[in-house]
């Protein structure tokens, strides 16, 4: 049916692009469904009538997992990576001039242990990059944040584009890794949603990367993702999606709004999109700094009452976000969290905190629908337990 809509939509950019996106999603969904097979039956038994919504943290139930009770985890990109192809601005010495050209040379459906390493030399690469589903275990290595820059300006206000399609870099292939890059979206002040990086890559590891944008900077769309020592900058819902992601030792920075930043705003750092209590998804921040850019903090200290920033708000009904041992600076509102609209999701979300410090971390005035996680349960959200990282994240970094 979607194909027939696509065929009949020539000349209508919005409609044809929407149909093309649907075809891609159906293809990706077919692959994912085949990979998990009958997971519900495995977990809940063959008697469908007996399937009931699982208990959640809001019911006082915390999963123990098999990763032990330690919060600490030291993993990241492996240290012995060898370059397969190189990208450079002038194309000299046989290197590719664009990142996408290099991605296109990666083998399809490579062996699970074989990584395809793309070294991207210092420079500004103005392009939209897509790593398709069949390109597994692709690695981007740059020369450092602010040196190797991939930049774009797509936004959801453009004809035929959804938020999903605005990403400067979008990854579907599992096992993606990246280090030493800046990825940004420079869409203008009237652009609304404009994604810098989007990942649907299971078992992905991102280290020492910078993501710059405004609304919807980092789209952690789905599956298991690990971010270490990264910098993420934006203002409206700038870390969002329905993945199971852990952010470790990252710098989370609120940037000024692009239009009349001095007037004030209500910003949410996160907007997690869990739609079902059975989904093992959520955003977990460990040992991160939550602050503003230098420019934003000048506005904030000038009129602190009009500049309101919150840790998150519920994009979907079972939104789950956790901050553990993070430093929260003064810009975080004492309430901590903000509603999406009215009382939507306030009885079903899980927003947890543990061991945080800084002027924005004081639990006294937190909204009643957030939770201070009991110490005996905080290990539920370790890398080992929440995303089973000890089974797939290299530890020889």
UniProtKB/TrEMBL annotation:
Residues 84-390 form the Pectinesterase catalytic domain. Keywords: Aspartyl esterase, Hydrolase. Coiled coil: none annotated. It holds the Pfam family Pectinesterase. Pathway: Glycan metabolism; pectin degradation; 2-dehydro-3-deoxy-D-gluconate from pectin: step 1/5. It comes from the Eukaryota. Gene3D superfamilies: Single-stranded right-handed beta-helix, Pectin lyase-like. GO terms for biological process: cell wall modification; pectin catabolic process. In the C-terminal section; belongs to the pectinesterase family. In the N-terminal section; belongs to the PMEI family. This is Pectinesterase catalytic domain-containing protein. It comes from Gossypium darwinii (Darwin's cotton).
């Amino acid at each position: 049916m979607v194909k027939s809509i696509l065929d009949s939509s020539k000349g209508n950019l919005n409609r044809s692009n929407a149909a093309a996106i649907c075809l891609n999603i159906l293809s990706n969904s077919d692959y994912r469904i085949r990979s998990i097979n009958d997971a519900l039956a495995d977990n809940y038994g063959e008697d469908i009538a007996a399937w009931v919504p699982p208990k959640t943290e809001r019911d006082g139930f915390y999963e123990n997992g098999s990763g032990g009770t330690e919060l600490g985890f030291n993993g990241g990109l492996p240290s012995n990576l060898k370059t397969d192809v190189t990208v450079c601005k002038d194309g000299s010495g046989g290197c590719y001039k664009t990142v996408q050209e290099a991605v296109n040379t990666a083998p399809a459906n490579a062996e699970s242990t074989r990584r395809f390493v793309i070294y991207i030399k210092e420079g500004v690469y103005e392009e939209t990059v897509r790593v398709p589903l069949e390109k597994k275990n692709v690695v981007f290595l740059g020369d450092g944040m602010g040196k190797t820059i991939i930049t774009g300006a797509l936004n959801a206000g453009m004809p035929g584009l959804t938020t999903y399609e605005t990403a400067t870099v979008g990854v579907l292939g599992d096992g993606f890794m990246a280090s030493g890059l800046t990825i940004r979206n420079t869409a203008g002040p009237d652009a609304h949603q404009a994604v810098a990086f989007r990942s649907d890559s299971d078992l992905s590891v991102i280290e020492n990367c910078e993501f710059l944008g405004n609304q919807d900077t980092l789209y952690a769309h789905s599956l298991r993702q690990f971010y270490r020592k990264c910098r993420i900058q934006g203002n409206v819902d700038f870390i969002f999606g329905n993945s199971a992601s852990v952010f470790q030792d990252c710098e989370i920075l609120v940037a000024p709004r692009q239009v009349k930043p001095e007037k004030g705003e209500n910003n949410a750092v996160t907007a997690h999109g869990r739609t079902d209590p059975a989904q093992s998804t959520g955003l977990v921040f460990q040992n991160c700094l939550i602050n503003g850019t230098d420019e934003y903090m000048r506005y904030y200290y000038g009129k602190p009452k009009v500049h309101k920033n919150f840790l998150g708000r519920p994009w979907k009904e079972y939104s789950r976000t956790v901050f553990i041992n993070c430093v929260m600076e003064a810009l975080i509102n004492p309430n901590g969290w903000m509603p999406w609209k009215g009382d939507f999701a306030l009885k079903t979300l899980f927003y947890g905190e543990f061991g945080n410090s800084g002027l924005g971390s004081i639990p006294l005035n937190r909204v009643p629908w957030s939770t201070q996680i009991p110490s005996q349960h905080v290990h539920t959200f370790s890398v080992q337990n929440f995303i089973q990282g000890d089974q797939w994240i290299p530890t020889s970094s």
